[in-house]
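Input sequence (70 aa), recorded before submission:
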Amino acid sequence: EFRRVLFRSEIEWKLELKKLKDKSSPMECHIIDGMVWEISDVELADLLHVSRQYINRKRRQLMKRLKDQI
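Predicted structure, token format:
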């Protein structure tokens, strides 16, 4: 998994997500929270009233931004 390759610890992973969250839209912030809490795409889509595909696409975009940020 991406996070295991680039980050030595769970704390390091969450700190980088916090930095990313500071530069993100409100919807992206909710998706980042879902990543931290390890909520599935389906569950997150239901909570945010959007499609699973939208959540998946935004997660991929966020992960790319996170990788570029490091």
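Checked by second reader. The helical segments are 2-6, 10-22, 26-36, 41-48, 52-69.
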